[in-house]
Amino acid sequence: MTSTTHTRSARFDLRARDLTPGGVHSNVRLGGPRVCFDRGEGAWLYDIDGNDYVDYLLGQGPSLLGHAAPAVNAVVAREARRGSVFGSQHVLENEAGELFLDTVGWAERVRFGLTGTEADQAALRLARAATGRTKFVRFEGTYHGWLDNVLVTSVDGRIRPASAGQLAHHLDETYFLPYNDVAALEKAFANHDDIAAVIVEPVMCNSAAIQPRDGFLDEVRRLCDRHGSVLIFDEVITGFRVALGGAAEKYGVTPDLAVYGKAMAGGWPVSALAGSAALMDQLTAGVVHSGTFNSSVPACAAVIATLTELRQAPPYERIEAHGGTLMRKIGELGAAHGVPLRVQGLPVAFHASFGDPRTIHHHAELEAIDTAGYAKFVEVLVGHGIWVAPRGIWYVSAAHGERELNAVVDRLDSALAAETRV
Ligand code: PMP
């Protein structure tokens, strides 16, 4: 049962399906509710049928300052008058680079790109070049982009290529280990001397927002040092979100390379690869990374405006308070309606699901939750004006305040009442 109508969205979708496969421009959008949005403003989305939504998806994370943040968009609009890309340097690049490195804190060099996917590839390539080794370690349940060597799914607990047409042998480059399991990593290093890099999502936002156990990231750091492997933090979600300096700051562990995206540019498409000068300068010594649109004027303007805003008015305490209260309310409302809603993760990026309330520490334990049931419940949430991801992640932004909290609690209450009736 839904309380909103989507007649125009449905008509739009029909037309879209004739124009682009499945009507959407990313396979991630194929499943789940289909809504055509007119615009976003702050923590709200407005669709073409006149419905509004409190948004806890934030475009999969980028809109940390809320949609169409005036502090960012005004700067982008102004600077875009210069043009976009010139095939050389432009006047905003150094400011964006300096601000970025100063904000991240530990890195000495940065290269800007467009997507997390490509920046992850550059990181892996650099690590191989630097070590002369071929393989890398990653953890079950992480996501590092959609290319052949990193795209996986899990079938009956076994890791498989996720796409038809994917060259499965590219996955032979990888040792997959359970997250939060130091012994497994020690064993991998003991058995293999070809590990160029360990790549890790410091918080597994792509898998139930699983947090690192105390000391886990320190141990990963220690083992990489001992065995001469490059430690890559995939901070595409955590960067600028879990703290101004990302997970490296929050957990006090410094990687050799890190990849950023999403929240770094107020919703504009920018990614970054950052690291030590010794590693990064290999990009002038035979390791290739390129891109027509890298470090465009609008991209640099968006980075400058976003990071300036985050530094001048850090929203992290407010976000933490909002997210923390919301996590508690979700649990309480679920219990009041007899719906087994469980939440875990960080207030700024947490995971909600149906099922066993125990904390999930690694990917395999996800079997204890009812993924399909929750995805269906998300359709009910959308019908009640809450926009969230079917896979369970909830992102909180600087634009979520008291009004949004009241709205989401009210709407969640109605949605759960509808859920218990079916
Ligand atoms: N790494 C992580 C941790 C991600 O969550 C994502 C995207 N969700 C990517 C890489 C890929 O980024 P993009 O979608 O910008 O290619």
TrEMBL record:
> Pfam families under this entry?
Aminotran_3
Check the record and name the InterPro entries matching this protein: Aminotrans_3, Aminotrans_3_PPA_site, PyrdxlP-dep_Trfase, PyrdxlP-dep_Trfase_major, PyrdxlP-dep_Trfase_small
Per UniProt, which keywords does this protein have?
A: Aminotransferase, Pyridoxal phosphate, Transferase
UniProt entry tagged with the keyword Aminoacyl-tRNA synthetase? no
One annotated GO molecular function is:
pyridoxal phosphate binding
> Do the record's keywords include Magnesium?
no
Q: Which domain of life is it from?
A: Bacteria
Q: Which cofactor does it need?
A: pyridoxal 5'-phosphate
The family line of this record is: Belongs to the class-III pyridoxal-phosphate-dependent aminotransferase family.
- Protein name as catalogued: Aminotransferase class III-fold pyridoxal phosphate-dependent enzyme
Native species: Jiangella asiatica
Q: What is the lineage of its organism?
A: Bacteria, Bacillati, Actinomycetota, Actinomycetes, Jiangellales
